[in-house]
Amino acid sequence: PGVAAAPPAEEPGSGSLCAAPLRLARLPLARVKALVKADPDVSLASQEAVFVLARATELFVETIAKDAYVYAQQGKRKTLQRKDLDNAIEAIDEFAFLEGTLD
Amino acid sequence: MAERPEDLNLPNAVITRIIKEALPDGVNISKEARSAISRAASVFVLYATSCANNFAVKGKRKTLNAGDVLSAMEEMEFQRFIAPLKESLEVYRREQKGKKEARKDKDKKADSEEQDKSREEEEEEDERMEEEEQNDDEEVDN
């Protein structure tokens, strides 16, 4: 009622990157918010900001899993292992921020 | 207060599900790999938050907003996230608007000041959203 015509929210596969781009976050916003609040420099974060962060984190998880899987494939394995992740982090510039943080 | 930021983690079940859906059928993930990805996700949130906060500070704002997070993605070289994030944000905003309308109908009295305040914020964000739609810019700038 009164809302402008919007594309249907439940169209699977209509997005680009991921499985359900139009779905709301699966990661609980409360937990994401707890992480945001852990930063002493942050005073407040809007609900929208927390939501976008949650969605971004989901995209990140998808991305890093896929990138790590390439290494498992190279090793002819069907199980993703820790070393695949380490390889991906070392090889891919965008993951440089993770170096040294996972131990 | 005893928890370090790196110890705050995201629910394993959800992380696992996201990983499994990203990978082809029949692919498994070791416990160590899953746990490492989960930790990486937490680090990602912390790093993105810090990055986003810089934009808020630059904009002389005390509240981190969605635009700041999108700017952070650009900064962190995750530009390809920006389009799907904007889509999700659109849906989220519509849903929030719908919820608010339902609340307004039930709750015609202006008894909670908090609701009014958040409504003002939402209205500001709506105006900004309209501006963005007009500009059709990739970069979200306030």
UniProtKB/TrEMBL annotation, chain A:
Q: Which residues form the Transcription factor CBF/NF-Y/archaeal histone domain?
A: 25-89
State whether keyword DNA damage applies. no
Q: Where in the cell is it found?
A: Nucleus
Domain of life, per lineage:
Eukaryota
Question: Quick one: a GO cellular component term?
Answer: epsilon DNA polymerase complex
InterPro entries in UniProt: CBFA_NFYB_domain, Histone-fold, Transcr_DNA_Rep_Reg
Question: What the protein does?
Answer: Accessory component of the DNA polymerase epsilon complex. Participates in DNA repair and in chromosomal DNA replication.
Which protein, by its recorded name, is this? DNA polymerase epsilon subunit 4
The source organism is Gopherus agassizii (Agassiz's desert tortoise)
Q: What is the lineage of its organism?
A: Eukaryota, Metazoa, Chordata, Craniata, Vertebrata
From TrEMBL, chain B:
Q: Which residues form the Transcription factor CBF/NF-Y/archaeal histone domain?
A: 9-73
Query: Could you tell me where the Basic and acidic residues compositional bias lies?
Result: 93-120
The GO molecular function terms of this record are: chromatin DNA binding; protein heterodimerization activity
Q: Where in the cell is it found?
A: Nucleus
Q: Which InterPro entries match?
A: CBFA_NFYB_domain, DNA_Pol-Epsilon_Subunit, Histone-fold
Record key words, sorted:
Acetylation, Coiled coil, DNA-binding, Nucleus, Phosphoprotein
Q: Which CDD domains match?
A: HFD_POLE3_DPB4
Which cellular component terms (GO) are annotated to the entry? CHRAC; epsilon DNA polymerase complex
Tell me the segments the record calls region Disordered. Answer: 93-142
Q: Where do Acidic residues bias regions lie?
A: 121-142
Fetch the Gene3D superfamilies from UniProt.
Histone, subunit A (1.10.20.10)
**GO biological process terms on file:** DNA damage response; heterochromatin formation; leading strand elongation
Keyword GTP-binding in annotation: no
Note the subunit structure.
Component of the DNA polymerase epsilon complex consisting of four subunits: the catalytic subunit POLE and the accessory subunits POLE2, POLE3 and POLE4. Interaction with POLE4 is a prerequisite for further binding with POLE and POLE2. Heterodimer with CHRAC1; binds to DNA. Component of the CHRAC ISWI chromatin remodeling complex at least composed of SMARCA5/SNF2H, BAZ1A/ACF1, CHRAC1 and POLE3; the complex preferentially binds DNA through the CHRAC1-POLE3 heterodimer and possesses ATP-dependent nucleosome-remodeling activity.
User: What function does the entry list?
Assistant: Accessory component of the DNA polymerase epsilon complex. Participates in DNA repair and in chromosomal DNA replication. Forms a complex with CHRAC1 and binds naked DNA, which is then incorporated into chromatin, aided by the nucleosome-remodeling activity of ISWI/SNF2H and ACF1. Does not enhance nucleosome sliding activity of the ACF-5 ISWI chromatin remodeling complex.
Q: What's the protein name?
A: DNA polymerase epsilon subunit 3
Its taxonomic path starts at:
Eukaryota, Metazoa, Chordata, Craniata, Vertebrata
